Predict the structure of DUF485 domain-containing protein.
Amino acid sequence: MSHQDPRVGRMFRRDCMAAVGAVAAVWLIYGFTFWMMRPAFAASDITGLMIGLGVCVVFLNTAAVLAMVRHYGEDRAAIYGTDIYYLDRLRQARREQGVQP
């Protein structure tokens, strides 16, 4: 399996887009949840605490996803090469059994 296989790049880009979508979803969900809960936070006088906790959670989630994407980028040939190897083997086995992919 060559590291120049174009499928590696496609798989990496697809995973990056999924990661960006997941981070965006986390930000939107936390924003929506805070917006809907702010009257309760204000009534309990914990608005500042909840803002701080929410910022910590979204920051740590974003940092973790960025670190994962960076790692996948550095090691993409090994990570995706293994996936492609087994996908090719599965496709070949199905072909030999007469099953269409």
Remarks:
- The chain has a mean pLDDT of 91.
